[in-house]
Design goal:
heterodimer, A: 7-stranded mixed beta sheet, 4-stranded antiparallel beta sheet, B: 122 residues, mainly beta, 11 strands, globular
């Protein structure tokens, strides 16, 4: 099984900050990686596919990069609606998720 | 519009089974594989397994093998997830989630059900 490790687990930031979340895979997954945003009481929302492909309707302040085993999700200028928990997911071999990164208000 | 509507909350005793349904609409039922994901209270997402809607073949995460059964009913466009031998650690919100690309075996999940809360308690 492929293990996904996210860091940090919690991130405190202010509106307007640049925020970066890291996700590492236990083995190479090429670019078979997605990022999701989840708000309390809601299902996850797909933000990014194939590591860096932004889903329709997702603001351009979100960007993704990486391949192989190391990936990042960057929010260029944090907005109030971005405070949420973010998960990475590999789908190279079935699927598995990272532990999540909670982005909270500083 | 494309949507997945899941069955309502369940309360079960340890050792019992639970069956959750996920009714798909707004797209061709057989075109997108379906996955099941769960989330324990305050915890992260855990992938459980997947089913192909056309042939019904399944694959599940190792920790659920032997306890998890995934099926589908093409006549009603409904997927089912049954988990046996429930224990308190199975208390979680269970989601069905559609694979993004038609016919794909490697893809993200673009449409999610609203979730079904399963509580296991004596």
């Amino acid at each position: 099984d492929i293990q996904m490790t996210q860091s940090p687990s919690t991130l405190s930031a202010s509106v307007g900050d640049r925020v970066t979340i890291t996700c590492r895979a236990s083995q190479s997954i090429s670019n078979w990686l997605a990022w999701y945003q989840q708000k309390p009481g809601k299902a996850p929302r797909l933000l990014m596919n194939k590591a860096s492909s932004l889903e329709s309707g997702v603001p351009s302040r979100f960007s993704g990069s990486g391949s192989g085993t190391e990936f990042t999700l960057t929010i260029s200028s944090l907005q109030p609606e971005d405070f949420a928990t973010y998960y990475c997911q590999q789908y190279n071999s079935y699927s598995s998720f990272g532990g999540g990164t909670k982005v909270e208000i500083k | 519009q494309v949507q997945l509507v899941q069955s309502g909350a369940e309360v079960k005793k340890p050792g019992a089974s639970v069956k959750v349904s996920c009714k798909a609409s707004g797209y061709t039922f057989t075109s997108h594989n379906m996955h099941w994901v769960r989330q324990a209270p305050g915890q992260g997402l855990e992938w459980m397994g997947t089913i192909t809607p056309s042939g019904g073949s399944t694959n599940s995460a190792q920790q659920f093998q032997g306890r998890l059964t995934m099926t589908r009913d093409r006549s009603t466009s409904t997927f089912y997830m049954e988990l046996d031998s429930l224990r308190s650690e199975d208390t979680a919100l269970y989601y069905c989630a559609r694979m993004l690309t038609s016919g794909s075996y490697n893809d993200a999940f673009d449409i999610w059900g609203q979730g079904t809360m399963v509580t296991v308690s004596s």
